[in-house]
Amino acid sequence: MPGNYMRTVQRTPESYQACKDIIACMKDRAHLERQYAHQLTEWSNKWKSITETRPLYGSLMRAWQCFFSSTERLSTLHTSISQSLVSEDGERIHSWRKEMFPRKMFCGFKESHDLGAAFLRAQRPWEKRLKKLEKARAAYHKSCQREQSAQEKEHQAKHNTKLSESKLSKIQQAREKATQERSKARDRYEKVLEDVTGFAPRYMEEMESVFDQSQEEERKRISFLKQAFLSIHRHLDITNNESIKAVYSELHHTLMSISEPDDLRWWKNNHGPGMPTDWPKIEEWNPPIKKQKPGKKPKTHRGTEEKAVMIGGVRVRALYNYTGEESDELSFKAGEEFLKVEEEDDQGWCWGVKEDGVEGFYPANYVLPVK
């Protein structure tokens, strides 16, 4: 019917608005995913620090902490989902919408303008015929009304004995004329209707041709949005995500690894009878080492020539273990023998040389001459 094509023409701007709504909808969902990821991280950080102060240990502690590591991985996943919804799906729909809905200056969308013009061209001849048909119909109905009125007058005149023959004759002539006019109006009405009916197939073909163009554009939109929705579903469907499966698989494995014997054994070895014990024993006395006093001249390294002259010094044996604290000090164990090649200085240090040629200072009171 005339004007009914406008609903199809309006489908184009409505589809454009639908794309805008889909983008806004996915942005909201991305915001929710981002918030959820942030909340997961906050929860993990909060309870991770709390668990470190709790008395759990061993495999039970590892299982509890595994909840936090898995949560951090989930947080990363939901952050990735948020980014995919905006940067991939949202941008894809936005770019497609820009390409699919070109605008015509001062006329809105080009597709809507072209479809409206095509529908109007196809419908204009039909609309003219419908107006002509409506005019013929109105004329026919009006002639029928006049004929009915003339028939009623004729009927009343026939039963009026006071009416003259001439007047009755005029009334009858008027009724016959109304009947003829009705018949002519019906003929014109039927002729116009025949023309409209004969034009209908062509009209339908032209209108359906334009409508099919609109349907093809809509088919493309439906096909694209179907793929876009499938992409969104792929990003949101974490049930088939291998990373999610791995997170919960590892979590389940860690939980199943909780071992009562291992945890009890760990406690026994670290806080029970199995822990290392420093049993009492005799501690040997080591004489104090004379350290350099403030203001005193530090011990000095003798020249190679002087040490060579003293290579046949006094042989001494160590009474105690000694580990050198500086690079020019000699280290030895109790009972080890070496040569004393320089006399004790005023700070209690001597210069010694081992059989392997290692030399250095050592405390004089840690050794005795070998007899």
Topology, please?
Layout: H1 6-9, H2 11-51, H3 58-100, E1 103-104, E2 108-109, H4 110-158, H5 165-236, H6 242-256, H7 260-271, H8 304-309, E3 314-318, E4 337-342, E5 349-353, E6 359-363, E7 367-369
Antiparallel strand pairs: 1-2, 3-4, 3-7, 4-5, 5-6
Protein name: Protein kinase C and casein kinase substrate in neurons protein 3-like
Pfam family, one: FCH
Domain F-BAR: 1-263
Strand content range: 5-15%
Q: Please provide the ordered H/E string of secondary-structure elements.
A: HHHEEHHHHHEEEEE
Which class do the helix and strand fractions yield? alpha+beta
- Give the biggest sheet: 5 strands, antiparallel
Shape: rod-shaped
Question: What is Rg?
Answer: 55 Å
Proportion in helices? 55-70%
How many E strands?
7
Q: Characterize the quaternary organization of these chains.
A: single chain
What is the straight-line distance between the termini?
Answer: 134 Å
Low-pLDDT parts are 293-297, 301-310
Question: What average pLDDT do the residues reach?
Answer: 85
Strand line-up across the major sheet: 6-5-4-3-7
The count of helical stretches stands at 8
